[in-house]
UniProtKB/TrEMBL annotation:
Record-stated family: Belongs to the universal stress protein A family.
SUPFAM superfamilies, alphabetized: Adenine nucleotide alpha hydrolases-like
Domain UspA, chain residue ranges per copy: 3-138, 148-285
PANTHER family (alphabetical): STRESS RESPONSE PROTEIN NHAX, UNIVERSAL STRESS PROTEIN UP12
Annotated InterPro entries: Rossmann-like_a/b/a_fold, Universal_stress_UspA, UspA
Name by which UniProt lists this protein: Universal stress protein
Pfam families documented for this protein: Usp (PF00582)
Length: 288
């Protein structure tokens, strides 16, 4: 649906948090929100069981979507909120519903402790197969006005769709943008450290990588002069550094390269790790 943010709603705390995030985003963008409640038919023996009677079915099929819409309209009266109830496999239904939407928003639940967050099979399938941006939202997150938008950037293969998405999110929020680029020493450099008379090439490589990051961002700084930009180029794991930055972020933006292969779908190791461990909501932007 053009001009719409789609939310997957299943009645969980996580999906309600996703709906709340989507309504706030819709207010910033001037868009409508559609809650898609997917109802999977229950096998007949289960449907006939006493613990899955008519009242339970009616609660899931009618009350939860209705109450979610009413709550969002109360908190966000300026946003048009509607609900659609569809039958079928959740991943397939959400992919179809979001085919021409501006954004798809899903919830993800905490695993507890240091375990991170669980992006279930439905969420992973949708992220891996859609060409629309997908935002994964955690339940219980704090309102993050004023916090930065964090952009994970590969200076060797920068993509305009991913960068533009991050800059637009920062502009809408009047928030700063933190561009994070990570690099590691190629193995020949590591092996040569002991042979180079104590010379450590990391300083030179760090300067070159920081310069490359600045060069990639230069036209975007000019296009978005109102966005304050911080550049962070450093040695280490790309996913690990983004997860660290997520602790003080409003949103983390990562790219997912579309790989059209007969051998199945692919998310990418960095996006996959950030999806599961970022504290802030994560936007996964598909690109060629």
């Amino acid at each position: 649906m053009p001009g719409t943010i789609i939310v997957g709603l299943d009645g969980s705390t996580e999906s309600r948090a996703a709906a709340e995030w989507a309504a706030r985003e819709a207010g910033l963008r001037g868009l409508a929100v559609t809650l898609v409640h997917v109802w999977q038919p229950v096998p007949e023996p289960m449907a006939l069981a006493s613990f899955l009677g008519d009242e339970t079915h009616q609660h899931w099929a009618e009350r939860i979507p209705r109450e979610a819409v009413e709550a969002l309209k109360t908190r966000h009266p300026e946003v048009e909120v509607t609900v659609e109830q569809r039958n079928g496999a959740p991943a397939e239904v959400l992919l179809e519903a979001a085919a021409d939407a501006e954004l798809l928003v899903l919830g993800s639940r905490a695993l507890g402790g240091i375990g991170g967050f669980l992006v279930g099979s439905v969420g992973q399938s949708v992220v891996a197969r859609t060409d629309r941006p997908v935002v994964l939202v955690r339940a219980g997150g704090e309102v993050s006005d004023g916090r930065s938008v964090v952009l994970g950037l590969d200076v060797a293969h920068p993509d305009d769709l991913v960068i533009a998405f991050a800059f637009e999110e920062a502009r809408r929020r009047s928030a700063p943008l933190t561009a994070v680029h990570s690099w590691n020493l190629p193995s020949p450099y590591v092996n040569s450290l002991a042979l180079a008379g104590g010379y450590d090439p990391r300083d030179d490589i760090a300067d070159a990588q920081a310069g490359a990051l600045a060069e990639v961002l230069k036209p975007w700084r000019e296009k978005y002069p109102e966005v304050e930009v911080a550049e962070k180029s450093g040695f280490g794991s790309p996913a690990g550094r983004l997860i660290d930055e997520s602790k003080e972020a409003a949103l983390v933006v990562v790219g997912r390269r579309v790989r059209r292969s007969p051998f199945g779908v692919h998310i990418g190791s960095v996006a996959h790790a950030v999806m599961h461990h970022s504290v802030a909501p994560v936007a996964v932007v598909a690109h060629d």
